[in-house]
Amino acid sequence: MPPSSKYEENAIASGARVIAGIDEAGRGPLAGPVVAAAVILQNFSDINGLDDSKLLTEKKRIALFDSILAMARGVGIGIIEPQEIDRINILQATRLAMKTAVTKLQTKPDYLLIDGPIRLDLDCSQESIIKGDGKSLSIAAASIIAKVTRDRIMEEFDREFPNYGFVRNKGYGTRDHQKALEIYGPCRIHRMSFRLLPEAGEKSMF
């Protein structure tokens, strides 16, 4: 089933007035930032086709990205670079990206719908929803904003570091990416705290 406004409607029934959905993109890659988005939808039925960004084609994601930016009440984006991920670890970096995204909203939310088992150090009501990008329209919208934003960042990095295929793999540990790491070693946007190459005798997961 596609995401619905059930969680938003329940939050409104409990007294919430401004609801933001929050999601991230880029926890698993070997290179590039983690990007989070916070989205306050103006009307839950305004934007047709919202869904988990991973289930959408690139063309559909981009079209929805533009619609969300044009029609949402608010959009905030948080970006945490690889060096900070290495310093504080990916879980803390994800939390920080999400918190930054919320603080960049021009309208302050009083209720957060967050994808995954995460709570943020923010003074407002929060609800964590496992696989929320497939359940909540607000989180689905945030997943699209985060994914398209991060993909565009990685496409820019591909111009600077053409040997790694970032335009195709977006920093994930594909076989071609790992082959490039064997030949060229890591570049400045690789996450040095991650295991960039499998141990001898191990097969790549990708």
Helix and strand arrangement:
Blueprint: H1 6-13, E1 19-25, E2 34-40, H2 58-71, E3 74-80, H3 82-88, H4 90-103, E4 111-115, E5 125-129, H5 137-160, H6 166-169, H7 175-184
Parallel strand pairs: 1-4, 4-5
Antiparallel strand pairs: 1-2, 2-3
Helix pairs in contact: 2-5, 3-4
Rough outline: globular
Q: Tell me the Rg in angstroms.
A: 17 Å
Fourth-tier CATH superfamily name: Ribonuclease H-like superfamily/Ribonuclease H
Q: Describe the largest sheet.
A: 5 strands, mixed
Low-confidence residue ranges: 200-206
Counting DSSP E segments of at least 2 residues, the number of strands comes to 5
In angstroms, what separates the terminal alpha carbons?
Answer: 28 Å
Tally of discrete structural domains = 1
Provide a descriptive summary of the structure in words.
With 206 residues, the chain is of the alpha/beta class. It has one domain (6-158): Nucleotidyltransferase, domain 5, CATH 3.30.420. Helices cover 39% and strands 15% of the residues. It has helices spanning 6-13, 58-71, 82-88, 90-103, 137-160, 166-169, 175-184, and strands at 19-25, 34-40, 74-80, 111-115, 125-129. A 5-stranded mixed β-sheet has the order 3-2-1-4-5. Helix 3 packs across helix 4 (90-103). It is globular. Mean pLDDT is 94; it is low at 200-206.
Task: Offer a concise description of the structure.
The protein is 39% helix and 15% strand. The protein has 206 residues and is α/β, with parallel strands linked by helices.
